[in-house]
Amino acid sequence: MAATPDEAWRPLDRATRDRLGERATAAARALADQDIAAVALTWVDTSGITRTKAVPTARFGHAAQWGVGMSPVFDTFLLDDSAVSGRFAGGPVGDLRLHPDLDRLTPLAALPGWAWAPADRYAQDGTVHPLDARALLRRETARLAADGWSVRAAFEIEWAVSKGDGGAFVPACTGPAYGMTRISELSDYLRDLLTALAATGVTVVQIHPEYAAGQYELSVEPEDPVGAADTAVLVCETIRAVSFRHGLAASFSPKAEADSVGNGRHVHLSLWRDGAGPAAGAREPVNAMSGGDGPFGMTAAGESFAAGILERLPALLAVGAPSVASYLRLIPSHWAGAYACWGLENREAALRFVTGADDERARAANLEVKCFDAAANPYLALAALLAAGRAGIAAEAALPAPIDVDPASLDPAELARRGIARLPDSLGEAVAAFEADPVLRDALGEAVIDTVAAVRRGEIALLDGASPAEIAAAARWRH
């Protein structure tokens, strides 16, 4: 049975702590038998950087029971490791506890002798930290479940590989975009990456060279939202580790080079109606993005879910395209989704509807959010997307007419006639929309809204006056 929204926010009591400690102690014995010396506990900060504390395997049981100390100041860290202060976070005072999710504990094939577990953050009294994005995502998932809905999600991971020393980016391969030459140039590297991901339980759907020199993309199987965000973290850290072992460096930044195509982290989402309970006869969930009478086969709820996301895309950019560098990528006619519109298989629309092949639409139909990138905290980005989609369902929102051309090819009068607006072209504009959005404020909470805005404005001030090349250099190795 799915957790209720309140249960998703339940504090740790002593009985729960004891059970976690016992499970983790048993897991630690199994890890020790595999010669694993330590477990890295990770969480993603407001700037989208994965932070960590690690414990020796022998201490893993204690860590699961009582947590590992971590300052709450990291909620206000900027991409250069400086910090700002908001009304709810910032400063040297206070402590949080990192508690590993034992269900996701994974030996890291790319880092022999190490294991990994995503962490949930609690206060010392066992209450959930209000800025814990993983908990926020669990709560949004539970809110949809309470209405009989579930979501399957997956992130596409794009990254650029450099063979340069120091801070410069030197493409590690130079073959044509999408060319087989790029596979040949780095075949050992890509093979080792796929082998490492398979060993960690990640199902890779496809991998291919991308447009920019040195750039690749990898897609994984969809899963529940929290699992999808966990997998995004695991995939990126595996890519990073395999790159280092090959003498390379991986950049997930929205813009590894100012004059090149950027890295996105597109989000795929499908809404599913949960199956009936045992009394009514168990049945499989049904994809609301297919089999209906709405646009291109969407059901009414599927259309409303998509419409809720489309309506709030300007505000959602504050968590999905959250860096100053994001707006070097988010430009028209670069397949980045720079206009607030949607379309069937339209890679210039911010929201692309994907049906899949004719005979697999019931399984494969989904939405792709193209305007998001890898500077985003994947937990926070998904939580905000689910909140927007849930609001669309509640309002029975309808989609506008789809767009079947590059919006940039339309003149201003035609764009206005069709109701198509350019998405924010600066981080400051996105933050203003985020702060003004009542649905996101209600779903995420005042502490999240204030802290996200403070961090975003801190990065804007940090990079004020910087050239595109300087912005790209500042963000290149941070995500």
Automatic annotation (TrEMBL):
Entry keyword set: ATP-binding, Ligase, Nucleotide-binding
PROSITE patterns: GS_BETA_GRASP, GS_CATALYTIC
UniProt keyword Nucleotide-binding present: yes
Residue span, GS catalytic domain: 133-479
GO MF assignments: ATP binding; glutamine synthetase activity
Top-level taxon of the source organism: Bacteria
Pfam families, per database record: Gln-synt_C
Ranges of residues in domain GS beta-grasp: 34-126
InterPro entries attached to this UniProt entry: Gln_synt_N, Gln_synt_N_sf, Gln_synth/guanido_kin_cat_dom, Gln_synth_cat_dom
BP-aspect Gene Ontology terms: glutamine biosynthetic process
Homology family: Belongs to the glutamine synthetase family.
Protein name per the record: Glutamine synthetase
